[in-house]
Specification:
Elements lengths: L12 E4 L21 E3 L1 H7 L5 E3 L3 H9 L5 E5 L9 H6 L3 E6 L7 H6 L2 E4 L13 H6 L2 E6 L2 H10 L9 E5 L4 H14 L2 E2 L3 H4 L4
Parallel strand pairs: 1-4, 2-3, 4-5, 5-6, 6-7, 7-8, 8-9
The structure holds iron/sulfur cluster (SF4).
Length: about 210
Amino acid sequence: MQGEASHTGTPSAFIRLHGCSVGCPWCDTPYTWRDQVETADFQALVEASKEAAVVASASVEMLCDWVAAQNVQHVVITGGEPLEQDLLPLVEALPFVVQVETSGTVAARPELARAVDWWTVSPKVGMPGGLAVQPEMLRLASEIKMPVSRDSDIETLKALLLDARPGTPVWLQPLSLSKRATRLCVDAAGLNGWRVSLQTHKMAGMR
Ligand code: SF4
């Protein structure tokens, strides 16, 4: 189940891609970073329902077959930073609504920009990887989902929004669902006409 932002509650198949150069210190999927994973056979991975710290190579066809078996109409491609791989063949092959979640640090080429149904841009600013959020990704965003832990994140977001299209839905997501960050998000959302995303999949006991 997609538990975050505009598509909250939508039954979804998640494809989590390996690799990320952003390096967020609070990353909750560090097993997607290169050189921290082992490889496995894709079918064995699916059958064993293994979770974190395992990655498998899979062809576009294998992924499409897997998604078709999930009985959902919505696919979320996430990571890692999914745009560090060439997504176009996969996106074009998936006969479903395709949502891509990205940090916005890699610009999507025009063909990919058009092929994806829903772009979730979750900006990561000032991270150890030293990558900047690309203004064209903010303009492309169907929604912007900002991780928030402190007041300065709100100011960072306001600066980023200068590059976004007016009216783009903005979601504030409190880091680790801490009480302090959640309060900050609720207050800032109220003042600015934004919304709060609470990672409802975690509340429901899903990864
Ligand atoms: S961009 Fe996402 S996957 Fe990459 S380090 Fe940050 S939180 Fe983790």
